[in-house]
Each structure stands twice: as C-alpha cells, then as structure tokens.
Amino acid sequence: MKAPEVAEALSLPRSTAVRILGVLESHDVVRKDRGVAFLSGTRLLWWETCYRIEIEPSKAIKPCLERIRDLTSETAHFSVLVGDRTVVVEQAASLHVTSSRQHLGSSAPLNAGASGRVALSYLSDKERRRFLSCRNLERLTTRTITDKTMLEREIQIYRDRGFAISRGERVPNTTSVAVGVLSKSGEIFGLLSVIGPSDRLNKNRCNFISEVLLKEVKSLSQTLETARGDTGGSARKSVDHTLGSRGVLGK
C-alpha cells in the first residue's frame, strides 16, 4: 500500500501515517517497494515465522550461535527463507579485530552465497525451477553465480556432502559455510552459517567449520523441535509483547 492509502484506511492525517511508516521502516517492520509502496518487512516476516512454528528465537538460537562463534572464532548467523531471499535474523559476531558480519535483516537472493544454495536445495522441484527460470538472476559481486547449470551443480554438491561453501558471492573477500536446520519431518527451520575473511577461511578452516556446524545443527534442530512442542503458545505471547512494545499493535 502507498502512504496515502494507509492514511485513508486508518483515518489518519497523511503526515501522521508517513511518520508512523517511517518508524516501522527503521525497524524493518515494513519496507518500500521501488520507493513507493510499503510491503511487509523482514522483521515482521520473521515474527510471523516464530509465531507459526512457536519458538522463542533469542532463547533457542542465540546460545547455539555464540557456541559456534567461540569454537570457530568467526561470526555465526541464523537466517530464514523469506520468499526468494535469505534473511539474517540472528547473529553472534566474531571477536576478531578483522571479521565479517552482516546487519540483522540483511537479505540476499537464493543464488548468492552458501545459505542461499542450501535454501534452494530444500525447495520443491517446482519452486526451484520457477526461481531458476528467472530471466536475470541477481548479481551481488563478480563471483555471484548466475549460471543455472552451475547452480544446479552446486546444489548437488551440497546434497552430497551436507554443507555448502561460497567465496565472495555475496560480499567480496568473504567466505561462508552453511548448513540447513531441519525438523524431524524435513521442514526447514532456517539456515546456520559461519562467515569470515576469505584469506583466513582456507580449505582446512572451512572443513573444520563444517564439522562444527554439522554437529551443532543436530543440537539446534532438537532444541527447536522441543521448543515448538513445549512452548504452549508462549512464543506467540512473546512475539505479541514485542510488537506491542514497539507500538505496532494497538491497545
């Protein structure tokens, strides 16, 4: 919706609607589409995911990321699939003076980076063909893979070994190792990844990081599965409280 439409729908002065939308945009609750219409932002979509699968992300995910960060000395991310993009929703930043990190809420197309590759592998054949049939896949760097045959090959490599590696596909001189976080039924909860400077994440380091991720992802999957079964709606209350505290929900 455009700002005038929001103002009319809520019976607010246009200036008030614009101000409120500006605040919501600053918190990634809404985003502008081509600078005109307002759409649901990545933070709102993440809240919806937590609400749907009934988990409290800060309790379930943050400790795992901090453990991975401490074991690898690099930044650990948890991302979710939102439409045709991966979105970073939680992280534990590296303590190195020189390190790689991304802002919470930052997103990338599925053809860019290890996390996107993992997400692509869990799409249905129909969904994956639809994405790969896009005329022009988005290129973020000179190393972003936009060749559909090469992407299919990389997806198969991930399936064969259980983890994906990318170098400079999303951010120059940055390497990422990623795995998928799955439920018992095969539902994808999200994507677990470690990123760092490419000159530090050589082959041996990436192999070590992949071992850490493959071990930790089993524990995280069990934690999320348990959290979903035991919360009894507490995650929904937590999300509602967060929305209310940010002034998104009315009294």
Strands side by side in the biggest sheet: 5-4-3-8-7-6
User: What is the CATH top level name of the largest domain?
Assistant: Alpha Beta
Which parts are unreliable, with pLDDT below 50 for 5 consecutive residues or more? 231-251
**Termini Cα gap:** 23 Å
CATH-wise, what's the superfamily of the largest domain?
Answer: GAF domain
Return the average pLDDT rounded to an integer: 82
Bin the helical content: 40-55%
Rg over alpha carbons: 19 Å
Shape: globular
Number of separate strands: 8
Largest sheet: 6 strands, antiparallel
Number of helices: 10
SSE class? alpha+beta
State the CATH topology of the largest domain.
Answer: Beta-Lactamase
Architecture per CATH nomenclature, i.e. the level-2 architecture of the largest domain: 2-Layer Sandwich
Strand residue content: 15-25%
Number of domains: 2
Order of helices and strands: HHEEHHHEEEHHHEEEHH
Could you please describe the fold and organization of this structure?
With 251 residues, the chain is of the alpha+beta class. It folds into two domains: 1-40, no CATH class; 54-230, Beta-Lactamase (2-Layer Sandwich), CATH 3.30.450. It is 47% helix and 20% strand. The chain is built from ten helices and eight strands. The chain has helices spanning 3-10, 14-26, 42-53, 57-60, 62-72, 114-121, 125-132, 148-161, 203-230, 234-245, and strands spanning 30-33, 37-40, 75-82, 85-92, 107-109, 164-167, 174-182, 188-197. Strands 5-4-3-8-7-6 form a six-stranded antiparallel sheet, sandwiched between helices. The protein is globular, with a radius of gyration of 19 Å. The two termini are 23 Å apart.
